[in-house]
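Example for tutorial group B:
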């Protein structure tokens, strides 16, 4: 079946998982003025706070990945602070519940930031989910359950493995965003990721955004690695 696709972000979102701001700016320099889509996560945020987000957002689109998961009131108030940064995307954990996700959205009111929710981390395997989370459905069912709850709360989409993107869109809507980390070019080191997909397959299955960290940031030539991954994703 041919599916309608409204929007796909053709640039891989680069996870800036660096321990210092110097490494971040040295890395971004290599791309010579290109406007990138980058992800700032806990590692940088807990060290440099909103300042690094503001700095990077001057020249790049930013996904602020802080994965909020707390009581609704706390999440709403934290999101109101994130709203001031006007980043393109930010996230919460769907496991926080529908009420928490609705509160997060209220906190973001007035900003242009899209809110998405993490379903099951791409570093979680089916067995780990059964054993540690004591969820006895299949991992796919769990991910779809969280996606439906996220849709019900009114969020723009989810973070999931590309493996699940097609099933999520079938269970929600074609426009429901599937942002997918756990991307590995064929033969690349997998590291702690469990549910990995190649850039080309991610696009075929239905990712709207791919997030790529180490295969680019740890590459000998990060610009070349970025361009190769972008080409595979868009071919
Ligand atoms: O929300 C995320 O961005 C995220 C969710 C998830 O399920 N898995 C996941 O890997 N991520 C993030 O995506 C990035 C993946 O990095 P690499 O494994 O180095 O490509 C990391 O910064 C993770 O924090």
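The residue assignment follows.
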């Amino acid at each position: 079946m041919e599916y309608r696709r409204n929007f796909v972000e053709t640039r891989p979102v680069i996870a800036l998982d660096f321990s210092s701001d110097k490494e971040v700016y040295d890395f971004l320099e290599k791309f010579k003025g290109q406007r990138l889509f980058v992800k700032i996560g806990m590692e940088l945020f807990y060290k440099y706070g909103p300042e690094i987000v503001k700095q990077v957002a001057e020249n790049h689109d930013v996904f602020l990945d802080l994965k909020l998961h707390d009581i609704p009131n706390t999440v709403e108030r934290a999101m109101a602070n994130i709203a001031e940064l006007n980043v393109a995307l930010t996230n919460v954990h769907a496991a926080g519940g529908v009420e928490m996700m609705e509160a997060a959205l209220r906190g973001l009111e007035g900003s242009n930031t899209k809110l998405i929710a993490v379903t099951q981390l791409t570093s979680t395997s089916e067995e780990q989910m059964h054993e540690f989370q004591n969820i006895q459905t299949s991992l796919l069912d769990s991910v779809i359950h969280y996606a439906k709850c996220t849709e019900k709360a009114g969020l723009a989409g989810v973070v999931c493995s590309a493996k699940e993107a097609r099933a999520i869109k079938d269970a929600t809507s074609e426009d429901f965003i599937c942002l997918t980390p756990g991307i590995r070019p064929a033969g690349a080191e997998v590291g702690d990721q469990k549910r990995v997909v190649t850039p080309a397959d991610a696009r075929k299955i239905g990712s709207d955004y791919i997030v790529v960290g180490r295969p680019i940031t740890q590459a000998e030539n990060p610009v070349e690695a970025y361009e190769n991954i972008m080409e595979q994703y868009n071919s």
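The pocket of orotidine-5'-monophosphate is lined by residues 15, 17, 39, 41, 65, 67, 91, 118, 121-123, 159, 181-182, 191, 193, 211-215 (CB under 6 Å). Compare this with the pattern of hydrophobic and polar residues in the output above.
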